[in-house]
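Objective 1b of the project was to move from sequence-level analysis to a structural picture of ligand recognition. The entry below was assembled by the postdoctoral researcher (A.K.) and checked by the PI before modelling. It contains the amino acid sequence of the target and the SMILES of the bound compound, magnesium ion.
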Amino acid sequence: PLTNINLSIEQLEEYISDKEYEQYFDIVKRNSKRINDLVTELMENSKPVESHKSALTAVQTILDNAIGFAKDRAKLKNIQIITDLQLKDEKVLADESKLTIAVLNIVMNAIEAVDANTGMIEIKSSSESKKCFISIEDNGCGISEENLTKVFEPYYTSKSNGMGLGLASSHNIIHSLKGKIDITSEVGKGTKFTIELDIE
Ligand SMILES: Nc1ncnc2c1ncn2[C@@H]1O[C@H](COP(=O)(O)OP(=O)(O)OP(=O)(O)O)[C@@H](O)[C@H]1O
Ligand SMILES: [Mg+2]
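Corresponding predicted holo structure:
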C-alpha cells in the first residue's frame, strides 16, 4: 500500500505543480516514509536476538534530526517548540536513524496532543553521572492514569487516524539500547516523556 501512496503522490505532484501545495506533498511523502520506517523497525525488533548494528551518536544530532523533521508540522499548527539542550558532544551507543525515530515518535505525539496556537513543546537534554536524559514535555490533553499503562502497547490509539505504533516502536528501540523511557501526565495539563541512556 505504501508504494501506491508514493506513486500517486508523485503523479499528483506532476499535475499540481503549485507552490502553495508543495508543503502538503512534502508532508504526505515524509509521513509515508515514517510509516515505512515504523513498520520496518517493528519487524526488525520482533526478530529474536537481532544484532543491532550500533554506532556512537551524539545526542545533539538526534535532537537536531527530530526537531528538524517536526518543525513544519509545528509551524502549520502555530505552536512553539522550546529547547534547552545541555548536551553537545556527549554520545550514546545507538544507531542514529533508529534513535531519531524513537524521539520523533514522541515529538509527533506531543504536536498532536496540543491545541493549535497555544500549544507548547519543550525539548531538553541533560546529563548526570554518565547518564543522559532527553525529555519532551507538552501542554496538551494529557493521558489518564488508566491509559498510561496502555500507551506503549502496539495498536493502542485514541486517534481516529492513528495506528498506535509510534510509542510501541519508541519503547522497543529504547529498550534494545538498554535505556529507559518514562511518562508522567496529567489530564488537561500535559505530558512529559523522559528517555534515559548511558553516555559512552
Ligand atoms: N503527548 C501525548 N499526549 C497525550 N496523549 C498521548 C501523548 N503521546 C501518546 N499519547 C496517547 O498514546 C496513544 C498511543 O500513541 P502512539 O504514538 O503509540 O500511537 P498514535 O499516535 O495513536 O498513532 P501512530 O501510530 O500514528 O503514532 C495515542 O493515541 C494517545 O492516546
Ligand atoms: Mg504517535
